[in-house]
Design goal:
Largest sheet: none
Mean pLDDT: 76
Shape: elongated
């Protein structure tokens, strides 16, 4: 019986981790998140100066803006993945189980909020900006989070 419980927990943890990584979205939902689906962009995150410079240098050229966004999104994803890995290495328990459930909900919310309204360039860039901000804000939030066993 104990072995079966251990296998179920490991399978659940593995499933949650894979879901988080596959969706690239591992952060708790923000309590201040807008429910207005017309507003794609979450709170403006503090992004790297290199990204701001890249956007300035792009001078409105869509392909260059897309390249800037792709680099910044990759960077922000790595920041979040590092925080997720840190929290996943923490102790098992109810707090970690709740956190893993939050990650799945956040991933679904990110996909919904950051979906482009159409396949035109403007909405695609807006959707990418939404993802960049969510990942950057998420990494900051996770950096300050602990799943301490005494808080369970």
């Amino acid at each position: 019986m104990r072995f079966r419980k251990h296998m179920t927990l490991n399978r659940r943890r593995w499933t949650a981790l894979m879901l988080c990584m596959a969706l690239g979205a591992c952060q708790a939902p923000s309590s201040t998140a807008s429910t207005d689906t017309a507003a794609i962009a979450p709170a403006q995150a503090v992004l790297r100066p290199a990204y701001s410079q890249c956007v300035q240098d792009a001078r409105g050229m869509d392909d260059q803006l897309e390249a800037c966004d792709a680099r910044e999104l990759a960077y922000q994803r790595k920041q979040m993945e590092a925080e997720v890995a840190r929290l996943m290495d923490g102790p098992d328990g109810p707090a970690k189980d709740r956190w893993m459930d939050e990650q799945a909900n956040w991933a679904e919310d990110t996909d919904t909020r950051c979906s482009p309204a159409s396949d035109h360039v403007g909405p695609m860039l807006d959707a990418q900006s939404c993802r960049i901000n969510r990942y950057a804000n998420g990494a900051v939030e996770l950096r300050s989070r602990e799943l301490a066993p005494h808080l369970q």
